[in-house]
């Protein structure tokens, strides 16, 4: 008997159901000659798709006949066997469905009996027959021939109950089968990628690829994953950022360059962080952090338009978030001073900052510097309360070793972080292109590493050699693709990654 979607398959029944389905698979293989491939035929005479039929014939009146024969395939997600007429809902990959009607009059005794005996929920089935609308107005195929395209050995989950989060992220294939939101998120991600690339093409940027295995990690303050190359007999690092290679490309004359690829950081995982994530970085010669902020706003707003048709995006929980208009730009030190009620400047001593942090209940980070303390305090007093899209400008110099010093404000650098919906979405710089100052910054970072800071950068001699050949003034930005999907959908990071790493 075919599984019913109204009843879940209890854990203790799974093995029994699998045994029953394995027996059906064996029977199909026994009938290989007549079944043309047994349980998993190589090909089938599919002539169209379920979405195409719905688009062409979705408005048929109840009881209408088309005289058109179509051959389609889909996964059975509902089945009802009633005497001389069987009904099944076939689902395509996008979630669209069509009804298959298997009747004694059209397929004969033997074929109808085989359908009842061998077909289960979850099977992929090919059907061919006339496209009609049932008496209840449901678009259908009046089947004249059918064939199992792929036998499912395990039952589907209950289609009327929500999958728990663990199942959704560990068995994303089930999530995609049963949940509209999962399919929509996967498609939204693809739409976002197309939009980003189109915006870059419109702005005359060139897409390149840089190494994921590196002899030295760089481009970010992060702990790397370490591996070993047997071919070169050397220790290698998984990329934490493509920055230093993309800047080499700018040195080489690619004035507008970007990359979308994977980064790996051996750090914590939570609702906004994943050890493996998709990253966009872009660099534009003869621009600065203001120009790259303009570009970043355009990239995100165009992506919102591509996914939602508007910059007023609707999140999965039904709430709305406005990504339109010109986004606010605030400076870190003045905004912190206003929120904290005391003046904090680049001249404020580390001892003063530590005392104020302890008084405010803000944990002093290990290997604290002036800049790290300022950023921790800012997160506490300002960052946790930001909701509207906001560029936070002008960071402490000691936390930004790859950034140019501010042209008019001593003690800060021309860097921004973009906050959307309360979390960091992207970061942008006026890039440091002076190799002498860059070497000094690297040396300071090396001292931090010697003191035990495993996120500090190392001296990269090859990158410094590239800068010594001359890099033009440039603006650069980096943005997490997974977080961009979070901003557009309101979902957590594990929902926006199709196959996230889980413990």
Q: Categorize the overall geometry.
A: elongated
Structural class based on helices, strands and sheet pairing: alpha+beta
- Which ranges are low-confidence, i.e. pLDDT below 50, for 5 or more consecutive residues? 1-8
Provide the β-strand percentage band.
Answer: 25-35%
Averaging pLDDT over every residue, what do you get? 92
CATH fold type of the largest domain: BirA Bifunctional Protein, domain 2
Give the total of beta strands. Answer: 18
The CATH architecture of the largest domain: 2-Layer Sandwich
Question: What is the count of distinct domains?
Answer: 2
Query: Major β-sheet, in short?
Result: 8 strands, mixed
Structural summary, described in words:
The chain is an alpha+beta fold and 503 residues long. It folds into two domains: 11-150, Nucleic acid-binding proteins (OB fold (Dihydrolipoamide Acetyltransferase, E2P), Beta Barrel), CATH 2.40.50; 178-327 and 388-496, 2-Layer Sandwich (BirA Bifunctional Protein, domain 2). It is 36% helix and 25% strand. It is built from 17 helices and 18 strands. The strands form four sheets. It has an eight-stranded mixed beta sheet, sandwiched between helices. Strands 1-2-3-5-4 form a five-stranded mixed beta barrel. A three-stranded antiparallel beta sheet has the order 7-9-8, with no helix packed on it. Helix 7 packs across helix 8, helix 8 (180-202) packs across helix 10 and helix 11 (332-340) crosses helix 13 (370-381). The longest helix is centred in the middle third of the chain and has 23 residues, at 180-202. 37% of the residues are buried.
């Amino acid at each position: 008997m075919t599984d019913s979607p109204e009843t879940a398959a209890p854990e203790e029944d799974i093995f029994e159901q699998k045994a029953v389905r394995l027996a059906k698979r064996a029977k199909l293989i026994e009938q290989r000659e007549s079944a043309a491939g047994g349980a998993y035929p190589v090909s089938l005479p599919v002539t169209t798709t379920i979405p195409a039929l719905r688009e062409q014939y979705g408005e048929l009146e109840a009881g209408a006949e088309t005289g058109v024969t179509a051959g389609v395939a889909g996964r059975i997600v509902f089945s009802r066997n009633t005497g001389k007429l069987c009904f099944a809902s076939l689902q395509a990959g996008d979630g669209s469905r069509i009804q298959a009607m298997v009747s004694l009059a059209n397929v004969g005794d033997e074929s109808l009996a085989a359908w009842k005996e061998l077909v289960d929920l979850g099977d992929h089935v090919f059907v061919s027959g006339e496209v009609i609308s049932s008496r209840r107005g449901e678009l259908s195929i009046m089947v004249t021939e059918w064939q199992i395209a792929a036998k499912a050995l395990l039952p589907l989950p209950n289609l009327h109950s929500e999958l728990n989060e663990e199942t959704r992220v560990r068995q994303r294939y089930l999530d995609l089968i049963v949940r509209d939101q999962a399919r929509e998120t996967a498609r939204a991600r693809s739409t976002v990628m197309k939009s980003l690339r189109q915006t870059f093409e419109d702005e005359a940027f060139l897409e390149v690829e840089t190494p994921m295995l590196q002899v030295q990690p760089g481009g970010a303050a992060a702990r790397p994953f370490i591996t070993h190359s047997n071919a070169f007999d050397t220790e290698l690092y998984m990329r934490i950022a493509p920055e230093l290679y993309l800047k080499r490309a700018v040195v080489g004359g690619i004035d507008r360059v970007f990359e979308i690829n994977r980064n790996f950081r051996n750090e914590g995982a939570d609702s906004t962080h994943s050890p493996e994530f998709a990253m966009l970085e872009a660099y534009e010669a003869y621009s600065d952090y203001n120009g790259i902020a303009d570009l970043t706003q355009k990239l995100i707003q165009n992506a919102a338009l591509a996914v939602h048709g508007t910059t007023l995006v609707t999140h999965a929980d039904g709430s709305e978030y406005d990504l339109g208009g010109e986004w606010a730009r605030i400076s870190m030190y003045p905004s912190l001073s206003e929120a904290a009620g005391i003046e904090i400047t680049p001249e404020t001593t580390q001892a003063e900052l530590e005392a104020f942090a302890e008084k405010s209940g803000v944990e002093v980070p290990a290997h604290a510097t002036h800049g790290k303390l300022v950023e921790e305090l800012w997160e506490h007093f300002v960052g946790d309360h930001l909701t509207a899209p906001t560029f936070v400008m002008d960071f402490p110099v000691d936390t930004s070793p790859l950034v140019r010093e501010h042209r008019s404000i001593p003690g800060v650098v021309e860097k921004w972080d973009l906050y959307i919906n309360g979390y960091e979405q992207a970061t942008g710089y006026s890039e440091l292109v002076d190799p002498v100052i860059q070497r000094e910054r690297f040396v300071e970072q090396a001292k931090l590493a010697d003191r035990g800071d495993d996120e500090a950068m190392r001296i990269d001699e090859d990158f410094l050699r590239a800068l010594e050949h001359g890099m033009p003034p440039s603006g650069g930005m980096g943005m997490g693709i997974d977080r961009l999907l979070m901003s557009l959908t309101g979902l957590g990071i594990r929902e926006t990654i199709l196959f996230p790493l889980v413990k």
